[in-house]
Write a structure and sequence with these properties.
The complex is a heterodimer.
Chain A: H1 12-25, H2 31-41, H3 45-65, H4 74-92, H5 99-113, H6 118-121, H7 124-139, H8 144-152, E1 165-170, H9 176-186, E2 188-192, E3 200-204, H10 209-221, E4 225-230
Antiparallel strand pairs in A: 1-3, 1-4, 2-3
Helix pairs in contact in A: 1-2, 1-3, 4-5, 4-7
Chain B: H1 9-27, H2 31-53, H3 56-73, H4 84-114, H5 121-129, H6 139-145, H7 148-158, H8 161-171, H9 177-184, H10 188-208, H11 216-219
Helix pairs in contact in B: 1-2, 2-3, 2-4, 3-4, 4-9, 8-10, 9-10
Classes of the chains: A alpha+beta, B mainly alpha.
Bound molecules: zinc ion.
Chain lengths: ~240, ~220
């Protein structure tokens, strides 16, 4: 890896240190890393210069770091509880045959009772999506990701180190069918996941850099895919 | 998430146990435990979201979404896998990404409504740059009338959500890069690369507006 304007190309520290600078500035490096940066800064003008922009960014951000930009409030918490009550009263009717309309009605009542003006600015699409997400959570006793994982990647195909892998996060409302379609169109297999944060690892058959990029672009443009990243870096030039 | 150097191991362990107990309570539908979680953790999450979303009403909504997700999935939290704050920021990150994407799509629609269609990516960037932000549009004015802080704020708004989130998690929330990797579900190297690319983009934007990012110290 080379960065432009590297004044000390022979210094093995430089490439490591220049990437650590943001966390040097926010004070979260461990003591060994911090000492390494300190040492390197003494001899590298480029890194000292890089540090300036990060310091400025930090100054800009620290101004608002402790300001009460947003604060929790009893009203805010009460509203969350209301939403939960709506969900759970929906849950109580789980055994009834008309569960979906009942829950939708409960949810829309909750929305109507929510006085904050922001709802009136939310698009219809967003409301529908939120409703869908909530319904999925309520309707499937196991969380949706687990459910998908069981049916789609239970066999856990072996991870093949020579094949490219992607980290992928699906929208909460993606259906099993949509995932199958995506996997088929990319000749991919889910080899790992979901992580605690809902990240799956997708192994692709495509081996060339160009094909990988193409696959990533296609996946990213899918409306039910939230995040796609190559495992092992985002392909720096 | 916060820098824990100097903290004794025993204290850290105690914290881990406290978090596990709190989340067990919430998984058991204990609303008082849920309220404790709300007041302890939502301020930092709210401030992070404010940097990204700008509107308190929108942040209210996203914090509610995060809290409801926590209520529904508390039993999935595993204190052995990481800190509670990391888990919560992971959820907030997903919700924020979605909200940013909604905002981006909305702005794009506005641009397409006012201009002829057929934007290239660069053209879209330029149109986007002038929309909804009191951005410095001409370089002369930039040099004469704009504080560097304003220009940086404007430039931060031009970053992609992925880059923006790494910058805010680093500078506003003060996460370690390891925590950012957990929160965003990316390898550590990707986090570092995103940060590096974000910095590169910021420097380019400043230069484009007639400002040298390296004159910063002298300018102050
Ligand atoms: Zn250096």
């Amino acid at each position: 890896m080379t960065h432009s304007n590297n004044l000390e190309p022979n210094n093995p520290d430089h490439d490591v240190v220049i990437e650590l600078l943001p966390w040097y500035v926010n004070g979260t490096l461990n003591s060994a890393e911090q000492a390494r940066v300190d040492r390197h800064l003494g001899s590298c003008a480029e890194c000292r210069q890089e540090l300036l922009l990060y310091r400025q960014l930090d100054r800009q951000r620290s101004a608002g770091r402790h300001a009460a930009d947003w604060q929790p409030s009893p009203a805010g918490f009460a509203n969350i509880l209301k939403g939960i009550d709506a969900l759970e009263s929906g849950n109580d009717t789980r055994l009834s045959s008309e569960k979906t309309p009942g829950r939708l009605a409960t949810f829309s009542t909750w929305l109507k009772e929510t006085p904050r003006p922001v709802f009136w600015f939310m698009s219809l699409e967003t409301l529908a999506l939120t409703a869908l997400v909530l319904l999925v959570i309520v309707r499937l006793p196991p969380p949706p990701e687990e459910h998908l994982f069981q049916t789609l990647s239970n066999e856990r195909p072996p991870v093949n180190a020579s094949l490219p892998r992607l980290s992928i996060v699906f929208a909460e409302d993606i259906t099993e069918r949509e995932i199958r379609g995506l996997l088929q169109s990319q000749h991919g297999q889910l080899v790992q996941g979901p992580s605690m944060l809902g990240v799956y690892t997708l192994q692709l058959a495509a081996a060339s850099e160009h094909k990988l990029q193409q696959a990533m672009n296609q996946l990213r443009s899918h409306p039910k895919v939230k995040l796609v990243e190559a495992v092992g870096g985002e392909g720096r030039q | 998430m916060i820098h824990t150097t100097g903290q004794t191991k025993a204290a850290a362990l105690g914290e881990q146990e406290c978090e596990a107990v709190l989340m067990q309570g919430i998984a058991g539908k204990d609303r008082q435990a849920f309220e404790r979680l709300y007041y302890s953790y939502s301020p930092r999450i709210g401030n992070f979201l404010m940097k990204l979303l700008k509107s308190p009403e929108l942040v209210d909504e996203v914090v509610s979404e995060v809290m409801m997700t926590v209520w529904q999935n508390a039993d999935r939290f595993d204190s052995a896998q990481g800190k509670l704050s990391t888990w919560l920021f992971g959820i907030a990150h997903n919700k924020a990404l979605k909200a940013l994407e909604r905002g981006r799509r909305h702005r794009l629609e506005q641009v397409l409504e006012t201009e002829e269609s057929g934007f290239g990516e660069d053209e879209w960037d330029d149109a986007h740059a002038g929309l909804g932000y009191a951005g410095p549009d001409n370089p002369e004015r930039t040099v004469l009338g704009w504080e560097l802080g304003d220009i940086l704020l404007w430039a931060l708004d031009q970053l992609t959500p992925e880059h923006r989130i790494v910058v805010e998690l680093t500078m506003t929330v003060q996460c370690t890069y390891q925590d950012i990797a957990l929160i965003t579900g990316c390898p550590v190297n990707t986090v570092k690369t995103r940060m590096f690319n974000a910095r590169k983009k910021l420097a380019e934007l400043l230069i484009k507006r007639g400002y040298s990012p390296y004159d910063i110290e002298e300018a102050r």
